[in-house]
Prior knowledge:
By secondary structure, the chain is an all-alpha fold.
Amino acid sequence: xxxxxxxxxxxxxxxxxxxxxxxxxxxxAKMDRAEITVPLIATEAGVTPSTIYRRWGDLxxxxxxxxxxxxxxxxxxxxxxxxxxxxxxxxxQYAEEMASGPGRQVIRDxxxxxxxxxxxxxxxxxxxxxxxxxxxxxxxGEAFPDIEHVLDRVVAPIIYRILFDTAxxxxxxxxxxxxxxxxIPPRPASALKSG
Length: 195
């Protein structure tokens, strides 16, 4: 949106964002989403509606921004000591969270945004989580696929099924991970000696 004021880091802007995000989350917890309006959020957050419109443009963009923030991981993937198990545990938890009612709503809100930045940020969060697992695997000398390969072979089917079919259960997610790990080309002997 051309004339929209971008967020400024820190200070008042950060406090306004935190207050508005909290107001949205509080209202979503106690009301049907169809009843939520910008003026209602503004009252709950203690700001004017014009502050919200200036910062987010409209309700859809605000809900997408809140959704992106809810998708930000709050912890590192579990370290089991094995790359495949790390990825499997992470993927099973990811699939379960995204298939939940709140997870599905977050996906819908993010995709409803007319700006692609929120969806890209969600993908970046996922890349970062997979990157943590990949870095651990590298330190242990374990083979691990390229992050984009994991997105294509594990994450994409999870999200596709949530959006258009029945969500994948842990058994099917484990098969996705196992099949993908089997597809990693063997490391050359020289890499095994130096790594």
